[in-house]
Amino acid sequence: METSRSGGKRIVVTGATGNVGTSVVRALAGDPGVASVLALARRRPSLTIAGVEWHSLDLSRPENESRLADLLRGADAVVHLAWRFQPTHDPVVTWRSNVLGSLRVFRAVRRSGVPALVHASSVGAYSPGPKEEPGVDERWPTHGWPDAAYCREKAYLERALDSFELRHPHIRVVRMRPGFLFKETAAAEQRRIFAGRYVPGGLLRPDLLPFVPDLAGLRFQVLHTCDAAEAYRLAVLRDVRGAFNLAADPVIDARKLAGLLDSRVVRVPRPLVRAALAAAWRAHAVPASPHLFDAVLRLPVLDCRRAHEVLGWQPARSAEEALSAFLRGVRRGRGEETAPLAGRRTG
């Protein structure tokens, strides 16, 4: 049950300065059932949000585990969002941050007596599956695509949470498995993550993109980040457990992308695109690895009925609206006053 602010909940959010984190802390801070939000990040931002207290903490460092446990004491729930996407050429670095850092969060939740853990999993945790609707529900295997570090790490943490829930059934565990998450003010970060630091956002103009490649398997789901944040808010405040798929309609394919970009669709052999991406990645020209490209083309379509029926969640924006916000943000160099989301057009 949601309570008044005077007797509201104390929530801790890790990874609070990123795409999802900034939206989640705003959603929680604006809820009368939440008394306070403690936002943790590697680098403390200049961003100010009413009702949010910021602390800097690097989860990849083993010596910070005790401090983390101290910060979590008295919390009613922990929302664990912290994730590092790069460097893709050194998966040991991301493993230390994403996997070992997450395991530290799980242990700190137990040590501090926090009754609820809401963990950011992903569509990337799922094994390859069908691309057609109605899609797979939360019972689909979560073994990821083993060649992609992102999927491998998300899948590993699913197994860790399986064990955690068996050992600690008194802790309410929720796993959020969204599709791709976009908003206007995260566009600069996402451009840097996937296209590289020096690719100008102005290149995403219709007159400079004469066609969209139609690749076998190019069907994926997206969601506006603020709609995902609403699902996290509900998961924190309602007595729910288990996994929830999150995505908005419609499923995005080459034709829908071409419509958004006022472009045309051209069938392109997948091996040709993969080879070009692999060459660019090996040359450190782009940060997105060919292994992630392989994974994206194998991701299943999600069935989100459980989130609608159990969580009581519905997205307020369509998938096309979420993508349009991202494209608008890329062209304008939009960002926020946090290190991950710093906005700029190039560099």
Describe the structure.
Strands 3-2-1-4-5-6-11 form a seven-stranded parallel β-sheet, with helices on both faces. A two-stranded parallel ribbon has the order 7-10. The protein contains eleven helices and 13 strands. It is globular, with a radius of gyration of 19 Å. It has one domain: NAD(P)-binding Rossmann-like Domain (Rossmann fold, 3-Layer(aba) Sandwich). It is of the alpha/beta class and 347 residues long.
What characteristics describe this protein?
11 helices; seven-stranded parallel beta sheet; 17% strand; 347 residues; 37% helix; two-stranded parallel sheet; Rossmann fold; alpha/beta
Brief write-up:
The chain is an alpha/beta fold and about 350 residues long.
Count of individual domains = 1
Give the amount of beta strand, in percent.
Answer: 15-25%
Treating each run of at least 4 consecutive H or I residues as one helix, how many helices?
11
Structural class: alpha/beta
CATH architecture name? 3-Layer(aba) Sandwich
CATH topology label: Rossmann fold
**Spatial shape:** globular
Could you give a short account of the major beta sheet? 7 strands, parallel
How many strands in all? 13
Distance between the termini: 47 Å
SSE arrangement, N to C: EHEEHEHEHEEHEEEHEEHEHHHH
Task: Report Rg.
Answer: 19 Å
Bin the helical content: 25-40%
Arithmetic mean pLDDT: 92
Q: What top-tier CATH class fits best?
A: Alpha Beta
InterPro entries: Epimerase_deHydtase, NAD(P)-bd_dom_sf, NAD(P)-dependent_oxidoreduct
Organism: Streptomyces halstedii
Pfam family, one: Epimerase
GO molecular function: aldehyde dehydrogenase (NAD+) activity
